Amino acid sequence: MSVAKKIRVSVEKGSMIRKMFEEGSRRRAIYGAENVFDFSIGNPNLEPPVKFKQVLMELAGDSRPGLHGYPSNAGLMPTRQAVAAYLGKYNKGPFTGEEVVITVGAGGALNVIFKTILDPGDEVIAPKPLFVEYPFYADNYQGVLVPAAGKADFGLDFDAMDKAFTEKTKAVLINSPHNPTGKVYSAKEIDQLAALLNEKSRKYGKVIYLVADEPYRRIVYDGVKVPSIFDAYANSFVATSFSKDLSLPGERIGYAAVNPQMAEKALVLNGMIFCNRIIGFVNAPAFMQRAIAVLMDECVDVGIYKRRRDALYNALTSFGYELNKPEGAFYLFPKAPGGDDIAFTAALQEVNILTVPGSGFMGPGYFRITYCVSDETIERSLPGFKKTIEQFKNQK
């Protein structure tokens, strides 16, 4: 067999978004790109802030020798210090560059964290629905992702989470603002989660970590605030990237930050720096590291995403779709009319609308719509959304 059995199984399990991408390519070839409405992939369609290109031009003209050599495995210290200064703006505790490791995106940050903390068989609890890659990230290091049910509004279900803890639990992984639902966990929820983690750490006589995946932190609406996990719980990490707030997903640049109050912080950081190297990243691209160091206060126009959220939400609810209004990120997660998310997303394909079944996120009965698309795509897709739900209503 040419491919490892484990990888063959993983490819089959993680193929829903890939299949949608392939289906989109097929339909664009048949019907024309302008007649296919692809809401399947969270690839930001906004251009980076104007300052980004200005910074690139300045960096490209810098002729000092040695700028393109290997940096420290932890990242360039001026960049780490810039991140630390930004972290100090929304956390109470002081940060230094020493608590920051620059990584190849948020996915790289999560892999570095898990490689550092997980022993074979260790468990990572994550509330459902969840980002499709999380189980694979844990499995990369012989860890086990343990899904815990969420509430109907996609908030944290603490009864379900409490039952998910075992003596093998090493971490809880949360994502807020959330992919695929757009939920933002409240300060009350984060405080309650911290209390639960402290309780379980005492019960099992070991540190249980909190890991927050936060690439959408700045993509929030209606005055919603993303609470600090660092202020709530000492043994915590943040993994994030500049893919969403600077619209730089292709540049693969992000960081992992460690709580300054973490137990055995120096050992953990040394482990992360070592893991950043041996996983194969070695270090994040130096050119992008220098760029983001002066872009920490820049952000795309979140108002554009809010306008698109409102347009889709208002239209879909008027058609009869059931969904919670997202507080952040750029996803809607409606209930699938009829309850079968696979069947409903297949029906949407027949009107050239591409979405992703919730089953791919461990959220069966729902489907994900990505609204980081053009206003025209949204407007022209609405008749298809209306036609499809009416078909399902008439089947009752």
Observed structural traits:
7-stranded mixed beta sheet, Aspartate Aminotransferase, domain 2, Aspartate Aminotransferase, domain 1, alpha/beta, single chain
Summarize this structure briefly.
It is built from 14 helices and twelve strands. The protein is of the alpha/beta class and 396 residues long.
The averaged pLDDT comes out at 95
> What does the oligomeric state look like here?
single chain
CATH superfamily of the largest domain: Type I PLP-dependent aspartate aminotransferase-like (Major domain)
Strand order of the largest sheet: 2-8-7-6-5-3-4
**Beta-strand proportion:** 5-15%
What is the general shape? globular
Number of helices: 14
Supply Rg: 21 Å
At the fold tier of CATH, the topology name of the largest domain is Aspartate Aminotransferase, domain 2
